[in-house]
């Protein structure tokens, strides 16, 4: 039985476990394991109301999760929620965990009165594109990384 849990400030160990899931799924140990933050930093981040972290637990172990951010808008009195990272351990894929995580995030969005939940996918990431196409409307946009001055 898998359980979906929202992390709180006291869940730094689970956040570390989720970062390992991300590291493996994205094949990016440099960013997810190279300079792990202190527990105090994780606690501060997990305590922020606009930071939403959900994990799927199987036998108490983190096997999937997502990190999302609620963004307050200025053009209208509303917010939107951006899924920044979403991954499932390879051994737990095809069990609808990503769909369950997004479903729980949709419930949180409704509770908070958010206007939309959105996510981006990379060209070539066919499983992610198929999942997001099933759940929402596709928009073709360009993404640019602009370095700080």
What is the CATH fold-level name? Aminopeptidase
Q: Gap between N and C termini, in Å?
A: 48 Å
The CATH superfamily label reads: Gcn5-related N-acetyltransferase (GNAT)
The largest pleated sheet is described as:
5 strands, mixed
Number of helices: 5
| Helix and strand pattern | EHHHEEEHEH
CATH class group: Alpha Beta
Beta-strand portion reads 25-35%
- What's the total number of strands? 5
Question: Mean pLDDT score, rounded?
Answer: 91
**So what's the overall shape?**
globular
Helix content: 25-40%
Count of individual domains:
1
Tell me the radius of gyration: 15 Å
Detail the poorly predicted runs. none
Overall structural class, as computed from helix and strand content, comes to alpha+beta
**Strands across the major sheet, in which order?**
1-2-3-4-5
Going by CATH, the architecture would be: 3-Layer(aba) Sandwich
How does this structure look, described?
This protein is of the alpha+beta class and 149 residues long. The chain has a single domain (2-135), classed as Gcn5-related N-acetyltransferase (GNAT) (Aminopeptidase, 3-Layer(aba) Sandwich). Helices cover 37% and strands 26% of the residues. It is built from 5 helices and 5 strands, in the order βαααβββαβα. Strands 1-2-3-4-5 form a 5-stranded mixed β-sheet, with helices on both faces. The radius of gyration is 15 Å and the shape is globular. It starts with a strand and ends in a 14-residue tail after the last helix. The model has no long low-confidence stretch (mean pLDDT 91).
